[in-house]
Design goal:
binds zinc ion, HIT family, subunit A, alpha+beta, binds guanosine-5'-monophosphate, single chain
Length: 159
C-alpha cells in the first residue's frame, strides 16, 4: 500500500509492531509515538499507517486526517509537557531536512530558551521589492486557474 516502500522503513516497522516505540495514539489510519530524540519532552511524531515517502505522495484526505490528529493531540501534549507553546513541523523532502522517508508530522512542545529554532524570517534572505512578490503571487494565481497546466501534488516539475 502507499508509495514506494522497497527500502527498509523504521516507521513501517513501528506501525507493524516490529519496531519498538512509545505509542501515545492510534486509530485506523494513523499512529503517534514519542520521538526517539525529542527536542523537548513530549515531542510526538504523527504518522500514517500506510507508507508514503513525503507530503507529495500522501493522499489529501490522509494528510488532513493527520492534521486533525495533531489538533487533537496538541492541547493534551501541551498539558502533559507543561508547555504553552508548540511547533507543528513537516519536513518534506531531502532539501527540506527530511531524514525518515515515511511521511510524518512533528508536534513539538516549546519552552522559552529551549534553544530549538526555525529561524523565520530567515536572516539570510533580503526583503524583495513588492513587484517581485506581486509577480510571484500572480504566477501562482495563474497556475491555480489554468485547467490544462494545473499541476497535481505529485506532478510538480522542478525548474
Ligand atoms: P525528519 O527529519 O525526517 O523530519 O524527522 C525524523 C525524526 O524521527 C527525528 O526527530 C528523529 O529523532 C526521529 N526518529 C528517527 N528514528 C526514530 C526511531 O527509530 N524511533 C522514533 N520514535 N523516532 C525516530
Ligand atoms: Zn514506511
Amino acid at each position: 500500500m502507499g508509495t514506494s516502500n522497497t527500502k527498509h522503513c523504521i516507521f513501517c516497522e513501528i506501525v507493524h509492531g516490529a519496531g519498538e516505540a512509545s505509542i501515545c495514539f492510534e486509530d485506523a489510519r494513523a499512529m503517534a509515538f514519542m520521538d526517539i530524540q525529542p527536542v523537548n519532552p513530549g515531542h510526538v511524531l504523527i504518522v500514517p499507517r500506510e507508507h508514503h515517502d513525503s507530503l507529495n505522495e500522501v493522499p489529501e484526505d490522509l494528510a488532513l486526517h493527520l492534521f486533525h490528529v495533531a489538533l487533537k493531540l496538541g492541547p493534551v501534549v501541551r498539558r502533559v509537557a507543561r508547555s504553552s507553546d508548540l511547533n507543528l513541523v513537516v519536513n518534506s523532502g531531502e532539501a527540506a531536512g527530511q531524514n525518515v522517508f515515511h511521511y510524518h508530522v512533528h508536534l513539538i512542545p516549546r519552552r522559552l530558551g529551549d534553544g530549538f529554532d526555525i529561524p523565520l524570517p530567515f536572516a539570510g534572505s533580503p526583503m524583495p521589492d513588492r513587484t517581485l512578490l506581486d509577480a510571484m503571487a500572480a504566477r501562482i494565481i495563474s497556475e491555480l486557474r489554468d485547467p490544462v497546466r494545473r499541476v497535481t501534488r505529485d506532478t510538480v516539475a522542478v525548474a
